[in-house]
Amino acid sequence: MPSTSRLLVTSTSEVYGTARFVPIDESHPLQGQSPYSATKIGADRLAESFFRSFSLPVTTVRPFNTYGPRQSSRAVIPTIITQLLAGHREIRLGSLEPTRDFVYVKDTVEGFVRIAESETSLGEEINIATGTEISVGELAGELIRQINPKARIVCEKRRIRPENGEVERLCGSNGKIRRLTGWQPRTSLEKGLAETIRWFAGNGNGNSRKAHLYHI
Length: 216
Fold this sequence. Notes:
9 strands; three-stranded parallel beta sheet
């Protein structure tokens, strides 16, 4: 049987839970703050066990909040964009205070490629992050600025996640991926959002996402 030459396990920044310190590096404690993050933590530890027990050439990759064209409407950026493109003047969101580290999809993909090509990343857990954070409220403000400055934000209780399940702060360190692969983010948030807006605005992509439906 042919041997496996390389395996990348796609983890998530959610395994860290609400940051105990920032930027979050790979030594940060793992916190199963939701069933989703708990299953990811389990997968990470299984990957580690196969590396240690059988020398499986695996790397656990932890992308922070990837965004861009074709993203699911359940994510916060498409939720805001589709409401704005549909002409809504009141943008309905949940909590505005949580912060996230948003990575443009092309940068995330380049990170995976660099890691796959790097022999020094075998057996490692590696973040793909920009090292900067922005709150949901500030993010919405930037999208409003780019699409319709006359719109305003309205908070809805039904969109607020359970208090103990909400990850309040995520801001990742990219020191390890830079050191091992030379990767660094190339796309600013402003430019990445503009590209994402263009895609949703083109060919009716925004309207087809049913902006009136509750996603988050």
